[in-house]
Specification:
The chain has one domain: Beta-grasp domain (Ubiquitin-like (UB roll)), CATH 3.10.20.30. The protein is α+β, with helices and mostly antiparallel strands. 28% of the residues lie in helices and 27% in strands. It has helices at 11-16, 31-38, 43-51, and strands at residues 3-8, 20-24, 53-56, 59-60, 72-76. The chain has a 5-stranded mixed β-sheet.
Length: 82
């Protein structure tokens, strides 16, 4: 079975309580559905995901509802500084 590893960064890592979450990846899995499943019951993490940038295998995710074929999904919350 194919899996996707969600890598949490900065405040997303704090809210998730871990640096990575691994989930099964089905043919109809999207970035939105994977993140919804990973953040189920965690309101703070859900809020962070809503404003975070996403990278799928290093490429920017522009459509969170497109089928996800990536092995890694990085969740990058807004960072302060420059």
């Amino acid at each position: 079975m194919t899996q996707v590893t969600i890598r949490w960064f900065a405040s997303a890592r704090e809210a998730a309580g871990t640096s990575e979450t691994t989930l099964p990846l089905g043919g109809d899995t999207t970035a939105a559905s994977a993140l919804s499943h990973a953040a189920d019951g965690n309101d703070r993490l859900q809020r962070i995901i809503g404003v975070a940038s996403l990278l799928a295998d290093g490429a920017a995710v522009t459509d969170r509802h497109a089928p996800l074929a990536a092995r890694t999904l990085d969740v990058l919350p807004p960072f302060a500084g420059g």
